[in-house]
């Protein structure tokens, strides 16, 4: 490559020299001179010159065509609450007669409900006097006489029932009401005869609710049965004592 450049340079130099010499040769016939030396023939064209330096940067091209639609972006943050919409059109005017009739029906129903509640209260009182008290799905029935714990178990069992054992406040309140109405403390179907200090229902399950009076139970092995006082509180006492018997169905 270098050699070729050098050769091209030399060729160019020679050409220029010849051309220069030819230019200086004046081919005019000299007066009184025998023109015996003819001018040399014009030389051949030299080789093309070297490539020039890169030209200046071109103008910015036109904008390309719009690309294809890209995939959807992430969900943006929640916008602010919009303004309240315009008020809707006014509704039809209600029929006055219908409204009056409706009010009369409501009043009649309210009166009917009041009478029904009165009747329920009366039935409830009559039931209690007869020895019945219903609370939730449990029915309590008072036996007419006071008996020992063992006798009480037999009486209830004969009627396909168990001795009353309240398992929540409502049931305890029902027995408290019966004790007040009969003015007698009631035996509960609860004892710690099997394991001292562990009070259980007749089915052997540990009690899930209690309402012991202050300092009770205190009878240790001498008091294994439980009574409910007229104030609703409990006391352990000897099972041979006689108390009002209430069965639960
Ligand atoms: C008192 C209290 C009770 C006990 C009875 C027994 O009322 O000491 O705890 O059970 O006597 O009669
Ligand atoms: Ca006691």
Q: Keywords for this structure?
A:
single chain; about 250 residues; alpha+beta; Mannose-Binding Protein A, Chain A; 4-stranded antiparallel β-sheet; about 35% helix; about 15% strand; binds alpha-D-mannopyranose; binds calcium ion
Question: Would you write up a description of this structure?
Answer:
This protein is of the alpha+beta class. 33% of the residues lie in helices and 15% in strands. It is built from 4 helices and 8 strands; from the N terminus they run ααββαβαβββββ. It has helices at residues 2-24, 96-129, 149-158, 169-182; strands spanning 132-135, 138-147, 162-163, 186-191, 200-201, 225-228, 234-237, 243-248. The radius of gyration is 62 Å and the shape is elongated. 16% of the residues are buried. Bound molecules: alpha-D-mannopyranose and calcium ion (CA). Residues 216-219, 223, 235-237 line the site of calcium ion.
Topology (elements, then pairings):
Blueprint: H1 2-24, H2 96-129, E1 132-135, E2 138-147, H3 149-158, E3 162-163, H4 169-182, E4 186-191, E5 200-201, E6 225-228, E7 234-237, E8 243-248
Antiparallel strand pairs: 1-2, 2-8, 3-8, 4-5, 4-6, 6-7
